[in-house]
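*** Backbone structure tokens ***
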Amino acid sequence: MRSKQRRQVCILLPNKQHLDCTVRVKARSHEVLTSVLKQLGVSDLQVFSLAVLRDNEYLFLDLDQKLSKYFGKRWSRGSTTVPFIVFLRVQYYVENGLLILSSKVQQLYYTELRQKALRSQSRHQEALFFQLAASALQAEVGDLEQREEEKRQERKHRCYFLPEDYFPSWLIKRRGRDYLLQHCPVLHGELRGVSRSQAILQFIKEASSLQDGPVTFYRMRQEKKELRSSILLGVAVKGVRIYQGVEGKLCLLYDFSWTDIDRFTFQGSRFEIAAVGSLCLPKLVYYTHSAFHSKHVLKHLSDSHRLRINTRDAVNSIQQLEDMQASQFYKEAYICDMARLRQTLQSGSLTSSMSDCSVAVITSTAWSKEEEEEEEEDEGSVTG
């Protein structure tokens, strides 16, 4: 009888590894998170959260909610041996990897960004993909000169990497494998002497410029009765982007900074975005899969904005320190200030900073017990 009150949960990581844990039937999401932290040997996941696939879309778990809320009847009558799948995914993208204190978490963040870059459709940013590939090769292969010495007897153009592992398929098709194998090593060679950790940080910083890289997408419909979702709402570091799918390609309709947004509201599956009056834009109305989805999208938007507000000063400080590092005259000051910055970040992590936020422009309304029932009358808002 006791075994029937337990469920197996499998947590899939960005690096294709997985963790396993056993929880009570009545367990809440934070119990899985506690197990993940323990198994990874970290105290805080910072930018990562647990997510489930629902209607073919990732939804981040509310840590206070019971797991049965996300798995429904399958959870209550589920097998004690077949695991339920949860994903560890980036929920909050950052502009600089130095904001992520744990090297393990930073490595996982880099890994997920690597995969997103390979799936990117930002065809107008071709040059950026060569920079990203060079940084990734330096992080994963090391100095090119070492590889050349090891293989000096091989053919002139050595194939020490597979283009498919470092470039999107459309770019390989556009330029050809030989072109990439010939020109990418030149950029890779320019990074000679850059350490693995520095290369990872460089990749993270460069990837922040990728239009569809550090973004979490939610599919929406323009009309409630539409069969297919043609709208993508993207939660980015600096704001919200609205895309429309046209003939298999994404067209950017709106690119809102957080200060451009006046209010997000939803009632059931109806999701509204109101821009500030100075933009003279009509209220945007889209439709999610359900009130359950609307609620989770709203919470993600609210938390992301809070995080942006709370890390703004830290991002500016890091940029100033990196500018100082570029000058030899300020090297000692950089080392001193970098240590002070790290101490500040350790005393208030990205996760805790969200809960401590008192200056956020966007605030979320409290949820009533009735709203947990996922009925069409559910509604909520965040305002600017």
In short: The chain has a mean pLDDT of 84. The chain is about 40% helix and 20% strand. The longest helix spans residues 291-325.
